[in-house]
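pipeline stage [seq->struct] | target=Alpha-1,4 glucan phosphorylase | organism=Acidithiobacillus ferrianus | residues=827
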Amino acid sequence: MPQCPSQPACSLPPLGMDASSLCSDTRHYLLRTLGAEETTSSGNSVYTALAMTLRDRLVEGWKNTQKKVAAGDGKRAFYLSLEFLLGRTMGNTLLNLGLEDAAHEALIQEHRDLADILEVEPDAGLGNGGLGRLAACFLDSCASLGLPVTGYGIRYEYGMFRQEIRGGEQVEEPDHWLKNGYPWEMKRPERIRRIHFFGRSDIYTDAQGKMHCRWIDSHDVLAVPYDIPIPGHRNGVVNTLRLWRAVATDIFDLGEFNAGAYPEAVAAKNNAEHISMVLYPNDSSENGKELRLRQQYFLASASLQDVIADWVAVHGENFRDFTKRHCFQLNDTHPSCAVPELMRLLMDDHGLNWEDAWDITSRTMAYTNHTLLPEALERWPVRLFRQLLPRLLEIILEINGRFLQEVARRAPGDTALLRRLSIIEEGDEQMVRMAHLAVVGSFSVNGVAALHTELLCKELFVDFCRLYPKKFNNKTNGVTPRRWLQWANPGLRELLTEQIGPDWKHDLERLRDLAPAAEDADFRTRWSKVRRINKERLAALVHQHTGVTFIPDALVDAQVKRIHEYKRQLLNALHVIHLYDRIKRGETTEITPRNVLFAGKAAPGYFMAKRIIKFINNIANVINHDPDTEGLLRVSFLPDYRVSLMEQICAATDLSEQISTAGKEASGTGNMKFMMNGALTIGTLDGANIEIRDAVGAEHFFLFGLNAQEVGQLREHYDPHIYIQTDRDLQRVMELVQSGYFNAFEPGIFDPIVHAVTHAHDPWMVLADFTSYKLKQREVAELWHDQTEWQRLSILNTAASGRFSSDRAIAQYNAEIWHLQPLAMTP
Ligand SMILES: *Cc1c(COP(=O)(O)O)cnc(C)c1O
């Protein structure tokens, strides 16, 4: 190969950040790279070309950030999560790079509208709901605060299913979000990792006569990383989300198959590649499928190997300072195989002894708990572990043995305590309790709202809390104000900056400065104008997707979240029936006109949740077609709830429904998005609602219902019929439902719903809170008539929402768990 060392490498022109640079680069990608035709190129081609243009502009910051991280001897954190509910990326990139106006102009030169191009992008729906969205908000905050945090997840081929509504029922359609390619990712084939499954563990002696364990006869799968850039807000930092894809180990395994069965052998590749095929669509419940355990181990092993490879490249096999430089945050127990897997890698692959490996593991792992619901607590059969992950099970049993010895030393003779704390649950079938594994293996365990953490220590982890009180801490959730305020609500963004200056954009607590403006009539008018525009846009969207015409200027009352009995969409639905009943009784003058909006997906195997969707749709259908409701009440179920839909909904909602049974919603984050955008909340004393109410003031929050303690006390002698007997309105509602009024052509379909709420064992106590909810909704309706007061409270809600920024949450994770130095970067 001819070389001329004296000749410098050809130079690259710097990338312009103005409209004409964006325009010419977009044209370059469109016409030269994608080979599109000038006049007939599709929206998708233009979207891809602009995405490539923007990605180029992320790469420099990306490399600079990586250099800074590598050069510094600083500590890094790794956020391990089976879910990252990213939504769309283009808008967020424009916002964080400050390229919104330039991109808008660039596309005008191309005779395109940026808004249309943004709509082309499919949501990256790699999560179910709150837990996955939290991971995405956290990555945005880490980058915006300049913290060296890498996200690790799975690159599911199919994300959260697309929801269609047919005949009022949910129909799931596969979400092939990658079908047009995903321009934001970069494949990193040089960082492929090998993951073991099955086989057995084997003891051998090395050349020095030392005994070791190894995992042999395994069936291996390759983990191929794809990196997505995570830019900070206007600070030059670009962190990484690394998603793993499962790929078969290629032709090597062919020998295992019958030599004559070549096509069958190639087809068997599929088996390995199934691991990253699809996201499990269960929110707050586990289904215990083997493939899910494979996904969990796949993520944990690939990510830890990746981190260790970087360490070894610099420090060799010396792990002395590893703890000082690493922290792994486990998003729920889903990635908690990381505890035994780090032990395995350190001992079997890098020669550490148990004590040193345990010291490192138990001082680098931190676990976030997301739920108290027993059906969501992960337990895996020991039998399954033994078969699928034999070496891991050995390590788990050793961790447990040593842990129980320590407990026995501290509480001699208390065998009941040992049984309660054990990582292994005894019974007909022995099970591995993943939450216990995560608690034992971590130096920090946190809940996600004050009440949730308190209940964790009083109930689920009461024994652990007594044993290790210092391990437990609270980190109330937050949401990123970039996506959920600045991007979702540009009208409000401009108005806020006009009124209080731009400082709130990097310190959301500065929204406090808005409070005095709540008393200013002129400002209130401007405030409600912005909100009205947002509401008109939402009404158009609802009309387009459901055919329902919202009542102009009426109260927009929204409950959008996963469909689950504990979230009590049923309570809302029964109240809607009550409003309808009042209209039918002729109380039309007292009724405040309302548009009631529902949206949310049900887990495909969750019968009751799917029936609730049908119930809401049937109610909507009857009400919307009854001429008596004209101008008074509209009900709609907007299909396919997802991040990009919530961006429009939260900016246009007047009343945020946060009505879960007290003690059941760990935190909620939808509640925070609504509050930031000026919605008032009707809610129970549950999750972060409590902190929202404290922040805005009790007089500016519509509180109703039993508190968590009262729910607990009522449980034993709960009798739903008492509430029907004592509230004539509720009685009429129940009679309407039971008469088949909403299912004239589908007899009996709502019997399960009637049964669920009238049953003495209704765990969600829907009817117990009906009267209190109904009365509070009357206060809401009355306040709506006083628009001055309503807009005043709306402004005060936004003004008090600063602490629900995920920047505050991440600053606390960092100050109390991670202890990372922010990167010094220039924007
Ligand atoms: C914020 C968000 C959630 C969480 O909502 P909750 O009301 O807290 O359950 C779920 N899904 C999407 C798409 C979201 O944006």
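stage status: PASS
auto-comment: The chain has three domains: 14-73+100-121, 74-89+124-442, 532-785. The chain has 33 helices and 25 strands.
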